């Protein structure tokens, strides 16, 4: 399986060049075999790329911009989906390739299998059975976690005088009531201040996030407009060249007829 990366070698867009270099550089770092297909100098590559990008993946104007990535005939995605896969350590899955043993993606896949099967590796032995090396106290296995010493101590406490127990109970209840009242007053004083601080922090984060998102959207729109304009100019230049060739052919034909 060969990974195909469709690029525009003569693109004047800095954004497109950066995206193409990012994709190619990362594939080389992973030592993934790939082929670069230029759409600027090869009309067949351009038409093939446009025809094989799924309709739901195309932009609003219907013209997909490079870089576009394929695995043989299967569409993988554009730069944005490639970037998301790289951030999530899922590039091999994005490319439709098996992750090499020991890679982050392979480790994640192994962990996912463990969680899905509901069994942790450290809890099983080589035969896949639960590890019997973990000792469990006899009392816990029998459903009785209390030792003989605890039972004897409980029996001694029951033999003590009821009068002493009643006095201790009254004192304990009085102390508990005072402690609860103090905690409620303290909580009542701290709660409003904490809520106000939380609200202020949330408002600040929301404003910063919204401003940052608006700046990114404006930048992306500007880049898209510039890229579309460059593609239109490129197409117009190619059409002009074709027209010039046709005119030259027509002039030669007329000269031959005149002679």
From TrEMBL:
It comes from the Eukaryota. Residues 155-207, 214-228, 235-259 have a biased composition (Acidic residues). SUPFAM superfamilies: Thioredoxin-like. One of its GO terms (cellular component) is cytoplasm. Residues 141-259 are annotated as: Disordered. InterPro entries: Glut_rich_SH3-bd, SH3BGR, Thioredoxin-like_sf. Residues 141-151 have a biased composition (Basic and acidic residues). Belongs to the SH3BGR family. PANTHER family: SH3 DOMAIN-BINDING GLUTAMIC ACID-RICH PROTEIN (PTHR12232:SF1), SH3 DOMAIN-BINDING GLUTAMIC ACID-RICH-LIKE PROTEIN (PTHR12232). This is SH3 domain binding glutamate rich protein like. It comes from Seriola lalandi dorsalis. The lineage of its organism: Eukaryota, Metazoa, Chordata, Craniata, Vertebrata.
